[in-house]
């Protein structure tokens, strides 16, 4: 424009206003052309100032959806977390938008999604909500924090993505971001199979499902896909069939390829590969859609003769659902735990794959899933991620000074079996309780109905809570009139249910078929449950029993209380008052190693007063003592003991909460133990008629499963016992499940599953 040419007045005014608007935009931290977060326009990657710390975000931890999780920050070559101090919804808004979501829905403090690892990169964040990246929010400074990982923050973002968002928000950082990923069964032979183990790998991007071109795909990528869907490994498939299918139906390809190392827990943790070269006929250059075929673990295989069949030297204990628990390894015929020093997701994944699951979702420390007993076999475990067994990983043999407060645990990815779709709780005050309703086929159609409560107990309730992913059972109810439920589902559709407690689905338990039998009927008398995320775990100390056992001859007139409580042999009914009874006496120390207090099922109003002992008994049957011959025959009458429950002693730093005196509350606190001394009434077995020989001594705690626990296998303790008519020896005492199956079988007497009571 010539210098002499003058602009109209209105044009000059508009230009001035435009400059003011741009200046205001820059003042807020947004360069020209960058969309306001509150106005979702076409997404444009922001241009950051040279001195802005370059960070990368992801959502991790124990999450159920792709748009929620623990906030993790990648900076200076290392992943870390964000502290919840001063965190608010404005900061969550910045996180979610930086991840490509439209907005934040909520945020959660106190490591709701589990504790992270590594440095805590941000603390005391003060975001306005309009910052382009979390690195621009005022804070203590990157890496400056006084927080612990118990304060790791999490966010829940909107399901909606920012319109026009590419699969990589910052392609220069090689960051993968997409809405979802799945294995879609293509062949008819796989479409009806549960779980889905073979098919196209598809990612959801921009609201559409797209295939990935296999031109740069490799086995390590397949390993990651199978792992994230709960499978321990991958296998070959018939490529010819899929090639024919791709020719008939043209795929819609994703714009990028993927580069995985094989150790990633999720596809989103892999690096972004090259952009895919797409021809006009919609087939990728030199390739076809990616197909994976995964090997299921034995528990999820279509038949028991297929799937991942390795017998592992590792097991999980104390977990509420399949695929989680405290890690225990077998060494020299004895099970022990792993110390959490240097415990990582890589090591946890080796455990998960060894057990027939997928990759680890979380590596837990600090005895989060309960404390074990026995030795700590491994410490400072370091795995590459490709070991076949955790026992192949390097560990420090000289650093085994760990306590069980440091027991390591895992949560693994498991296949989606769809069990939750055929079961529900109805009528409860919260999602953790209600009448049990199941979806069953009746007369050729699927209908919702109730479960007959005849024989309904803790084991059945445990399976229901596990199937719904609600943790452990806290109560099993045989009446549910206070939970109305769905009127249309009042009819009984399942009866005669008997579970061992380990089943993944109620349908796997023994139950009547088409011929239902239920005297009570459904509706008001249907089965119900309440669930809890935690449970107690009682364990007897075998060393105390072994070290305190002795024999005593006691006159009948001094056993009046014991006689009233049926603690003596049946032959004592006819014994004269001046006769003697021979008693096998011992002390017992019962620890609560679980995650919640052990409380009696009965309320205070129903406790029984025992005048001899001068206190109330809150459980009619708490322990059973038995003596067996080596062929499994009971030779000394079992004694059913009822006690008051209290905290005798506790670990350091834990206060006693329960005391029997003065009609106090009864129970055993987590980290405490209840000791019954050898010199109190009924702490014995009457062996007056016992012949000299070798025997098996056995104690069972909570034998009727009256109170739910996280692990019942360790409620049994067995010892070898030798009696020569004058003296008694107790030796080789051990808890149930503490020895290998082979070692247990060499131990004369009964196996654990033969002595279980209902």
From TrEMBL:
<dbReference type="GO" id="GO:0005507">
    <property type="term" value="F:copper ion binding"/>
</dbReference>
<keyword id="KW-0256">Endoplasmic reticulum</keyword>
<keyword id="KW-0804">Transcription</keyword>
<dbReference type="GO" id="GO:0005615">
    <property type="term" value="C:extracellular space"/>
</dbReference>
<feature type="disulfide bond">
    <location>
        <begin position="96"/>
        <end position="157"/>
    </location>
</feature>
<keyword id="KW-0084">Basement membrane</keyword>
<dbReference type="GO" id="GO:0005604">
    <property type="term" value="C:basement membrane"/>
</dbReference>
<dbReference type="GO" id="GO:0006325">
    <property type="term" value="P:chromatin organization"/>
</dbReference>
<keyword id="KW-0158">Chromosome</keyword>
<keyword id="KW-0479">Metal-binding</keyword>
<dbReference type="GO" id="GO:0004720">
    <property type="term" value="F:protein-lysine 6-oxidase activity"/>
</dbReference>
<feature type="disulfide bond">
    <location>
        <begin position="383"/>
        <end position="393"/>
    </location>
</feature>
<keyword id="KW-0964">Secreted</keyword>
<keyword id="KW-0560">Oxidoreductase</keyword>
<dbReference type="GO" id="GO:0016020">
    <property type="term" value="C:membrane"/>
</dbReference>
<dbReference type="InterPro" id="IPR001695">
    <property type="entry name" value="Lysyl_oxidase"/>
</dbReference>
<keyword id="KW-0801">TPQ</keyword>
<dbReference type="GO" id="GO:0030199">
    <property type="term" value="P:collagen fibril organization"/>
</dbReference>
<feature type="disulfide bond">
    <location>
        <begin position="127"/>
        <end position="137"/>
    </location>
</feature>
<dbReference type="InterPro" id="IPR050912">
    <property type="entry name" value="LOX-like_protein"/>
</dbReference>
<keyword id="KW-0805">Transcription regulation</keyword>
<keyword id="KW-0325">Glycoprotein</keyword>
<feature type="signal peptide">
    <location>
        <begin position="1"/>
        <end position="23"/>
    </location>
</feature>
<keyword id="KW-0272">Extracellular matrix</keyword>
<keyword id="KW-0186">Copper</keyword>
<feature type="domain" description="SRCR">
    <location>
        <begin position="57"/>
        <end position="158"/>
    </location>
</feature>
<dbReference type="InterPro" id="IPR001190">
    <property type="entry name" value="SRCR"/>
</dbReference>
<feature type="disulfide bond">
    <location>
        <begin position="499"/>
        <end position="509"/>
    </location>
</feature>
<feature type="disulfide bond">
    <location>
        <begin position="83"/>
        <end position="147"/>
    </location>
</feature>
<comment type="function">
    <text>Mediates the post-translational oxidative deamination of lysine residues on target proteins leading to the formation of deaminated lysine (allysine).</text>
</comment>
<feature type="domain" description="SRCR">
    <location>
        <begin position="314"/>
        <end position="413"/>
    </location>
</feature>
<keyword id="KW-0539">Nucleus</keyword>
<dbReference type="Pfam" id="PF00530">
    <property type="entry name" value="SRCR"/>
</dbReference>
<dbReference type="GO" id="GO:0005694">
    <property type="term" value="C:chromosome"/>
</dbReference>
<keyword id="KW-0156">Chromatin regulator</keyword>
<keyword id="KW-0886">LTQ</keyword>
<dbReference type="InterPro" id="IPR036772">
    <property type="entry name" value="SRCR-like_dom_sf"/>
</dbReference>
<protein>
    <recommendedName>
        <fullName>Lysyl oxidase homolog</fullName>
        <ecNumber>1.4.3.13</ecNumber>
    </recommendedName>
</protein>
<keyword id="KW-0678">Repressor</keyword>
<feature type="domain" description="SRCR">
    <location>
        <begin position="183"/>
        <end position="295"/>
    </location>
</feature>
<feature type="disulfide bond">
    <location>
        <begin position="260"/>
        <end position="270"/>
    </location>
</feature>
<dbReference type="GO" id="GO:0005634">
    <property type="term" value="C:nucleus"/>
</dbReference>
């Amino acid at each position: 424009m010539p210098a002499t040419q003058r602009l109209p007045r209105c044009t000059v005014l508009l230009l001035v206003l435009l400059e003011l608007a741009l200046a205001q935009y820059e003042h807020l931290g947004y360069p020209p052309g960058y969309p306001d977060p509150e106005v979702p326009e076409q997404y444009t990657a922001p241009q950051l100032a040279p001195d802005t710390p370059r960070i990368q975000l992801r959502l991790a931890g124990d999450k159920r959806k792709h748009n929620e999780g623990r906030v993790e920050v990648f900076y200076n070559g290392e992943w870390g977390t964000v502290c919840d101090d001063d965190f608010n919804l404005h900061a969550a808004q910045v996180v979610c938008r930086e991840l490509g979501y439209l907005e934040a829905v909520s945020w959660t403090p106190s490591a709701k999604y589990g504790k992270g690892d590594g440095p805590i990169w941000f603390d005391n964040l003060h975001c306005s909500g309009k910052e382009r990246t979390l690195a621009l929010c005022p804070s203590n400074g990157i890496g400056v924090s006084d927080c612990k990982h118990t304060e790791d923050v999490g966010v829940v973002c909107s399901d909606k993505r920012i319109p026009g968002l590419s699969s990589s928000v910052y392609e220069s950082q090689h960051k993968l971001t997409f809405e979802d990923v799945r294995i879609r069964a293509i062949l008819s032979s796989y479409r009806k199979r549960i779980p889905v183990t073979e098919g196209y790998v598809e990612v959801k991007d921009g609201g559409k499902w797209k295939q990935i071109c296999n031109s740069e795909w490799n086995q390590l990528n397949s390993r990651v896909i199978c792992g994230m869907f709960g499978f321990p490994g991958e296998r070959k498939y018939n490529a010819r069939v899929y090639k024919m299918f791709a020719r008939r139906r043209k795929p819609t390809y994703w714009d990028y390829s993927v580069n995985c190392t094989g150790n990633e827990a999720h596809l989103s943790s892999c690096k972004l590969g090259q952009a895919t070269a797409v021809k006009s006929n919609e087939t990728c250059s030199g390739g076809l859609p990616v197909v994976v075929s995964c090997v299921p673990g034995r528990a999820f295989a279509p038949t028991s003769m297929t799937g991942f069949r390795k017998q592992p030297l590792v097991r999980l204990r104390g977990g509420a659902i399949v695929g989680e628990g405290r890690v225990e390894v077998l060494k020299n015929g004895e099970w022990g735990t792993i110390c959490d020093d240097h415990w990582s997701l890589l090591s946890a994944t080796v455990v998960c794959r060894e057990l027939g699951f997928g990759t680890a979702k979380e590596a837990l420390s600090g005895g989060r899933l309960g404390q074990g007993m026995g030795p700590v076999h491994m410490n400072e475990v370091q795995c590459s991620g490709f070991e076949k067994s955790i026992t192949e990983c390097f560990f420090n043999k000289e650093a085994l000074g760990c306590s069980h407060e440091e027991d390591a645990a895992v949560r693994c990815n498991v296949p989606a079996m769809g069990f939750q779709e055929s079961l529900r709780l109805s009528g409860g005050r919260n999602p953790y309780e209600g009448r049990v309703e199941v979806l069953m086929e009746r007369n050729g159609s699927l209908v919702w109905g109730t479960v007959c409560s005849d024989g309904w107990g803790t084991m059945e309730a445990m399976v229901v809570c596990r199937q719904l992913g609600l943790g452990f059972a806290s109560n099993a109810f045989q009446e549910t009139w206070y939970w109305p439920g769905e009127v249309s589902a009042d009819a009984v559709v399942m009866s005669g249910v008997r579970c061992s407690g380990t089943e993944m689905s109620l349908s796997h338990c023994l139950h009547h078929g088409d011929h239902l039998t239920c005297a009570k009927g459904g509706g008001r008398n249907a089965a119900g449950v309440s669930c809890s995320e935690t449970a107690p775990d009682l364990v007897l100390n075998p060393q105390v029993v072994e070290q305190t056992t002795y024999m005593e001859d006691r006159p009948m007139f001094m056993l009046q209380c014991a006689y009233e409580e049926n603690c003596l042999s049946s032959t004592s009914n006819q014994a004269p008052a001046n006769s003697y009874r021979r008693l096998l006496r011992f002390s017992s120390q019962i620890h609560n190693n679980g995650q919640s207090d052990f409380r009696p099922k009965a309320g205070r109003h129903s406790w029984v007063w025992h005048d001899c002992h001068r206190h109330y008994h809150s459980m009619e049957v708490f322990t059973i003592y038995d003596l067996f011959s080596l062929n499994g025959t009971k030779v000394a009458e079992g004694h059913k003991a009822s006690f008051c429950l209290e905290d005798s002693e506790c670990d350091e730093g834990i206060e006693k909460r329960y005391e029997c005196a003065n009609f106090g509350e009864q129970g055993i606190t987590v980290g405490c133990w209840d000791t019954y001394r050898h010199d109190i009434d009924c702490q014995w077995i009457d062996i007056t008629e016992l012949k000299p020989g070798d025997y098996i001594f056995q104690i069972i705690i909570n034998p009727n499963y009256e109170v739910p626990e996280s692990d019942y296998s360790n409620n049994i303790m067995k010892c070898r016992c030798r009696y020569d008519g004058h003296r008694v020896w107790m030796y080789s005492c051990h808890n149930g499940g503490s020895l290998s199956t082979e070692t247990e079988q060499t131990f004369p007497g009964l196996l654990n599953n033969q002595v279980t009571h209902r």
